[in-house]
Amino acid sequence: MSDRPVRTEIRDVIIIGSGPAGLTAAIYTARANLRPLVFEGALSSTGDQPGGQLMLTTEVENYPGFVDGIQGPDLMMAMRAQAARFGAEFVTDKIDRVDFSSRPGRVWVGEAEYRGRAVIVATGARAKMLGLENERRLIGHGVSTCATCDGFFFGDQTIAVVGGGDSALEEANFLTKFAEKVYVIHRRDSLRASKIMQERSFKNDKIEFVWDSVPVELHGDDRLAGATVKNVKTGALTHLDITGLFVAIGHHPNTSLFVGQLAMDDASYLLTHRGTHLNVEGVFAAGDVQDRTYRQAITAAGSGCMAAIDAERWLESQPHEADIVETPTDW
Amino acid sequence: MAGNYVTLTNETFDEEVGGSDLPLIVDFWAEWCGPCRMVAPVLEQIAAENATKIRLAKLNVDDAPAIAQRYNIMSIPTLMVFQDGVAKKRIVGAKGKGQLLEDFAEFL
Q: What does the pLDDT look like over A148-176, one tens digit per residue?
């Protein structure tokens, strides 16, 4: 290594995450000339990717302003372009480590360090998996984390969706466009999903509900060849002859990066107070990472706006320091 | 950066894949697949930066479902690398540039 001191640029605002919350915060802070640097994540085929969970959806029907709906990826690419237009900058990578114990807050991608006077955490949530043996191995071979990516390949086949919420029923209905039959495996005898999704699903001839049941074993070597489900009330085991399995059993907030630094509730969601403030001064949270109730694109965008305004006001209340810090090194 | 790839169809697939003098990455994709759209520019960049070693081709699975079926594609994006017409490598799911370069290392 060289013996020069490491120079780390200090940004006014660092935003971690690039779903509706992160990008809305980016639009607002960029328009306020706060030069946000957005860590948008690394490419993947899960909800944990630039653009977030909406990158895995098709038609978004309930985002205001789009009479005929809009494709999830189109919405996210438009939000990103809108933020870029006002000067937001992007790092297409995942943050490995953060340190909010000193100010400005520090974040690292590998060895590269970045510092932000204000940090907005908008890392969202990820889909939970079943945790069964074989599940990971069969991803991409019948087990799917993305109905919109993979539904197409199950034309005229019998498949299953696990879950009883809105996302499960949306996936099930979407998948009937391709599949011959879609089982919805749900661990209870009633659904959490909204009335409109329930009615749509009950009316759909291709959907059959498997109530009070959970998958306990997945079969197949190089591709999924059936699942054993267990009735949780009777204990009875049934074999479902399916070639595809889509898991939609809820979400877990992406907060492992912040354990020990940011206050969380018992389900690992970040705890906000006074709007979007967290327990560490100068750090704010927006979107699904702090929302165990609503979890909508529009509520995420709304809280992203709130975090941007909270961050802007907080920054205004702080004395301004230099934009570059030099850390002497012993190398 | 656009245009440094070959668009494959039902008619041209075998000829292009079999006749490529360089290892050929085939990107199985579709318009409705968000991760496919994210990974596309990364692949184009990799192909442009390694133009003497590897070629890039794209197959839209909507246009050529039979070919997707032939290779048992059940998830997209799927990237397959062919050498002399033989499938040598298969990568399922979108990944960042660094990881893809590692995956393609043996061909670069």
A: 878 999 999 999 999 999 889 999 999 99
A284 strand-pairing partners: A120, A277
CA-nearest residue to B30 within chain A is: A149
Report d(CA A37, CA A12) in Å as an integer.
Answer: 9
Cα B106 to chain center, whole Å?
16
Domains and CATH numbers, chain B: 6-107 (3.40.30.10)
Confirm whether A1 is domain-assigned. Answer: no
The whole-angstrom separation of Cα A87 and Cα A89 is 6
Secondary structure (3-state) at A290: helix
Asked if residue A256 and residue A190 are part of one domain, the reply reads no
CATH code for position A198: 3.50.50.60
Please identify which residue in the block is written with the tokens 């990717």.
A49
Q: Is the ipTM of this complex over 0.90?
A: no
As for how many domains chain A has, the answer is: 2
pTM (two decimals): 0.82
Residue ranges of B 28-47 with Cβ closer than 8 A to chain A:
30, 32-39, 42
d(CA B34, CA A126): 16
